[in-house]
Amino acid sequence: MRIQLTVTAVALAIGNFIFFQILDQRLVAKSIPQTYVSNAANAIVRLFSMSLVLASSTAFTQLLWRQLRLKCLKVSTIDGLMSVPTAATELLSRDMLQATTILWLFGVILQLIPIASIFPPGALIVSPRLVPTTENISVPTFDVRFRGNGSLTAMYNTALFLAGSDGWYRNPNDFALRIAKSALLNGEHLTSKSPCGLNCSYAIEFDGPDYKCESGYWAGLENRTFEFYGAFSSYKNNQEARMEYSPPANFLGAPSDRDAKFYFDVQYGPGGVANMSCTYFASTYHANVTFLNGSQTVDVTVERKYLLNATTLGYPYLFAPYEVVDPEDEQNPAAWNKPFPDDIVLYNKPDLGSPNITVSDAFHDSNIRAIADAVSFTLGGAISKAGRAPYDLIV
Question: Which UniProt keywords apply (predicted)?
Answer without folding.
Answer: Membrane, Transmembrane, Transmembrane helix
